[in-house]
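[agent] plan:
  1. take the single chain provided in the ticket
  2. run structure prediction with default settings
  3. attach structure tokens to the ticket
  4. add a short note for the reviewer (M.T.)
[agent] executing step 1
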Amino acid sequence: MSVELITEARALADLCRALAVSEWLALDTEFLRERTYRARLCLIQVANREIVACIDPLAISDLGPLYALLHAAGIIKVLHAARQDLEVFSGLEHLPAPVFDTQIAAAFLGHDDQIGYGALVTAVTGVTLAKTETRTDWSKRPLTAAQLEYAADDVRYLRPVYESLHEQLAARGRLAWVENECAALGDPALYRIDPDEAWRRLKGGADLPPVSQQVLRALAAWRERAALARDLPRSWVLRDEVLYELARRTPDGALALASVPGLDERAQRRHADGLLTAIAEGRRAEPLAIWNRAAPLTGAQAAQVKQLMAEVRALAGRQALAPAVLATRRDIERLVRGADPAELWHGWRADLLIPALVPLLSRTA
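[agent] step 2 finished; step 3 output follows
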């Protein structure tokens, strides 16, 4: 089936009318984010059983008909590893719903929980996809025939993958499980940007004393706002390691700033006021630790974790599920440290895990 390139508003409206009768719609995007804070949407691929099309958002200013289609409650939007694509649309305030994520679905049928699209296509259809355009610049025009075919494959094969997974899940009574998991992807809070929460992206804050942790928190919020305002990647504003040095040294003036490793003269000139203001804010805050480092597991606890993880893998094998779908190692460590199992797992997970794990935990305590 040939791929149609949509570059005009009238053609987009015609396409969306044709797709509006679909029960489901395969969806993918190509974007660039190396030089910007937000991903720049460069191509949108869609398909149903009869149509495969690539929509050029750089050529069409009004994508309203497409956004209406992506919001249609009666059409399931099928994506693979949907989180990044949904994040792109959330930045445009047009979050597709409802969603069926084939990566999530595959994990409920025993595939690896992080299985890639190409590997899943091969597993379901036997087709090996080409990888010729993995590093292409999707913002350049005109797009070549090879680029369009590569992009179209990302939805062309979603069709048989979706239908196969859907059929298997229905046969095993797991369709509702997957639908519930995928519904969580539609929560706008997942994609909301809150600069005051930017510190959560940083690792290693627990190595700093509480005052420096508060300074690092304030610096992370400042950098997030600066990156947003200038539409630049965070690291282009200031690298993580420089934020750590600033938090560790807490300079209180331009002269002290000049001695911070990694903070070059250009960054000092551009950001001095913002940095010093953020550092002062952090120093004024109540000196509470916000990065928490859990105490190392004892030998007995480590043995419990090993035994319980083995049981999770065995149970997952018996149920033909990816182990991470049932429980993560972090879940098991929390259980061993004393967390209430009923708070860790709910619904079908609780039905499977609690009877299997709690008796083992009590015997090895």
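[agent] step 4 note for reviewer: The domain at 299-364 is CATH 1.10.150 (DNA polymerase; domain 1).
[agent] ticket updated
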